[in-house]
Amino acid sequence: MNASSLKVRVDAVRDEAVDIRSYRISRVDGYPFDAYEPGAHIDVTSPAGVTRQYSLCGDPDHTLAQLFAVKKEKDSRGGSRSLHDDVAVGSELWVSAPRNLFQLAYDADRTILIAAGIGITPLLSMAYRLAQNNASFVLHYFARSGDHAAFAPLLSEPPFAGCVQFHLQIERDALDAKLEACFAEAGAGTHVYTCGPAPFMDRVTQTASRFVPEDAIHLERFGAPVESAPSADACETFEVRLSQSGRRVTVEKGQSVVDALAAIGVEIETSCGEGVCGTCMVDVVEGTPDHRDHCLSKAERASNAVICCCVSRSRTPLLVLDL
């Protein structure tokens, strides 16, 4: 738990699809939540004490309540299982302030949203905002069946009706052709957002890259798919200097920047520990990070302006951080 955590009350629990349950929460102190941009996620600490990240999927303009949904994973390590089994209306939880690494491009001429399964959650909040702005968009929702499509009744009604296409029971060998059809109306100025299982998103991005520029393709991962390989010129050990205090610390082989800084009493807030959530991002003043995260875009990596301290390392002997 950190100082910025909020205690919230669960006001509603609803089964949205097979193994997917939504939770509507409000602040225990009665105040509204801070505004957030669609695509944001929060940390939720379950009754089991496990903290996980979940996308906000309600209307981002409604600040008296927030909505998130959780898929009960078969191999759950306690997070999703505890939320499904131990949380009911009236339960109290701790959540973080929203963070957003998956932001809408409001200058897009057209927006294509492509979701699979629980990946609908961040895209639903985007659909709310796009509909409110009368923007040109379409949401393609892929699911195993109607019973596995969360929020299907909501998406079948105004303001989403007419902007949502359901794709159910699509066989793997038919997926590429179906995805190509999703981009039939993509043109200059189109932005693509996708969220779902990693293999699905890989196929979406591969297909989308034939129709739109790479920097117009955005994705949100729920977990690290594979461990990122170090760069060929990555340093086994390197030094970190803090620009604000001048303090220095050596980051040893197999040690994270977070752990090295903690050893000298400098705490960096972390959450996922996998380079997915972006909680531990810090600005880089000097040096070149060896990016091993799964949340920065290609452009953000190329700029070397920030580093995810829980997993990334350095390609230069010295890394100066804005701390």
TrEMBL record:
FAD-binding FR-type domain span: 3-105
Q: Pfam families given for it?
A: DmmA-like_N (PF22290), Fer2 (PF00111)
User: Which GO MF terms does the UniProt record name?
Assistant: 2 iron, 2 sulfur cluster binding; metal ion binding; oxidoreductase activity
Task: Please give the InterPro entries that the UniProt record associates with this protein.
Answer: 2Fe-2S_ferredoxin-like_sf, 2Fe-2S_ferredoxin-type, 2Fe2S_fd_BS, Beta-grasp_dom_sf, DmmA-like_N, FAD-bd_FR_type, FNR_nucleotide-bd, MRET
SUPFAM superfamilies cross-referenced by the UniProt entry? 2Fe-2S ferredoxin-like (SSF54292), Ferredoxin reductase-like, C-terminal NADP-linked domain (SSF52343), Riboflavin synthase domain-like (SSF63380)
Q: Where is the 2Fe-2S ferredoxin-type domain?
A: 238-323
The cofactors named for this UniProt entry are: FMN
Keyword list (alphabetical) reads: 2Fe-2S, Flavoprotein, FMN, Iron, Iron-sulfur, Metal-binding, Oxidoreductase
Name the domain of life.
Answer: Bacteria
PANTHER family, per this entry? CARNITINE MONOOXYGENASE REDUCTASE SUBUNIT (PTHR47354:SF1), NADH OXIDOREDUCTASE HCR (PTHR47354)
Name the record gives this protein:
Oxidoreductase
Organism listed in the record: Trinickia violacea
Its lineage opens with: Bacteria, Pseudomonadati, Pseudomonadota, Betaproteobacteria, Burkholderiales
